[in-house]
Amino acid sequence: MGSEAPHHQLHAFLFPLMAQGHMIPMVDIARLLAARGLKSTIITTPLNASTLSKTTDRDRLSGLDIDIQIIPFPAVEVGLPEGTESLDKITSPEMIPKLFKAINMLQPQFEQLLEEKHPDFIVADMFLPWATESGGKFGIPRFVFHGMNFFSQCVTESLTVYKPYEGITSDKESFVVPGLPDKIEMTMSKLPEHFKVTTVFTELMEQVRDSELKSYGILVNSFYELEPAYAEHYKIVMGRKAWHIGPVSLRNRDTIDKAQRGKKGSIDEHYVLNWLDSKKPNSVIYISFGSVSRFSNDQLLEIATGLEDSGVSFVWVVRTIQNNEEEKFLPEDFEERMEGKGLIIRDWAPQVLILDHPAVGGFMTHCGWNSILEGLSAGVPMITWPLFAEQFYNEKLVIQVLKIGIRIGVEEWNKWMYGKSVTPVKKEKIREVVTQLMGDGEEAEEMRNRAKELSEMAKRAVEEGGSSYANLTALIEELKIYKK
Ligand code: UDP
């Protein structure tokens, strides 16, 4: 209980968006703060709490002051099926505005908790813009967590402020995103929908920016050495008060912590580890498109065939549109032929555990920021296949700035699910990029070396004395002074 905590102990309220890509890093942040002696309370809904509690229970047993405060979620009230408490449960685009409506309805309950527990500060997801106002009512500073890197936030701000896409008539015509440290080019087809038409996100993104400007500061899951020019741009040119404290996934050091991040895996982690143990170093490609995207059966078939044709061993996480176990999307006898060569995991894999295994030498990713950061922390080069959100900006960071990846070549921003209207990436292209990334060509070798260097830098950043470690210390010290 906040009110019962010793007066010198800072108490943090952490309120993540109910989406794996937002909850997972926020829980890591809660654990990092608790490991520094703070009290961390995670605010979430009943089903999400039951998944997260395994991690927090383990942490509590090891002596950390961390708990979960549950608030009910009005799924049924907004017309969603009971139990739809997170974005990964969404199976059609029409459900998205309903989920956000339900999330907005949480404000009064959140404020009641603030009144009762009176924490010293709030870290709330960007998609809860009202949390700044809520904190303000009780004199509690609010920090924003976007789950994005500096680079993508700089791109977003430039697009929002300068609107360089105005006057561009063709979807494929490139334009420069102005004012950034590098010459970053974009096309209309790669921009999120809300820049082009009015959607539920158009107004929301304005509220997000407004609340960000009014909040105490921003926590960024990145490290200074990864994108120094953009960290400076963010703070100096954009004037945001930000702390880089990542990669937060490196908080998970042992097998159980890595295996239990997010949802319960659909495969036993020891089985995966044994399977990988039987493979040569850097010989396996890991393929995953994050926690919410779902591909059409046509696209899955192309991936399966492309992988088989590449001859490269793989671990592939598959999420179908229906997510139905019985659904048939593989070529005839594929699993028999791939026995020992490829491992297919339905729905949810222990991603960090897999990426960290020495047998894994490449990562085909949808460019979600957590995935990229986890991949580079593991020292693995990537094939970039962005789908939605800010993933096309992240692709630019990976390809152009960090130079640790090869593009699959997609040009069009999608909704959450891979729509029927989108032409699938063909098996020939998949085979080509997989063999290129996993082969012994000079370019691939250079990418592997750079990825390894970044991995070392990431690990140093979170160790005592490292840039992220020091930035977290600075944040805590500032909050102690604020509290006095
Ligand atoms: N993840 C996982 N297993 C899966 C799929 C995803 O552990 O099968 C985790 C992954 O490690 C990452 C998060 O879910 O931490 C996904 O976040 P990301 O930003 O990459 O993508 P999003 O899901 O938000 O699109």
UniProtKB/TrEMBL annotation:
SUPFAM superfamilies: UDP-Glycosyltransferase/glycogen phosphorylase (SSF53756)
Keywords in alphabetical order: Glycosyltransferase, Transferase
Cross-referenced CDD domains: GT1_Gtf-like
Pfam families in alphabetical order: UDPGT
Domain of life: Eukaryota
Molecular function in Gene Ontology: UDP-glucosyltransferase activity
E.C. no: 2.4.1.-
PANTHER family, per database record: GLYCOSYLTRANSFERASE, SCOPOLETIN GLUCOSYLTRANSFERASE-LIKE
Family that this chain belongs to: Belongs to the UDP-glycosyltransferase family.
Protein name: Glycosyltransferase
